[in-house]
Amino acid sequence: MIDLHCHLLPGVDDGPRDMKEAVALCKASYVDGVRMAVATSHVYPARWDNRAPSLRPVFEQLKQAIGEAGIPLELRMGGEVRFGDDILPLLDKEEIPFLGHDGKYHVMLLEFPDAGIPVGSDALVRHLLGRGIRPLIAHPERNEAVKAKPERLYPFLDIGCWVQLTAGSVLGQFGKTAKSVAFKLMEMDAVNVLASDCHNLEYRPPNMGEACKVIVKQFGADYCDVLVNRNPARIAGIAA
Question: How many DSSP H helices and E strands does the chain contain?
Answer without folding.
Answer: 11, 8
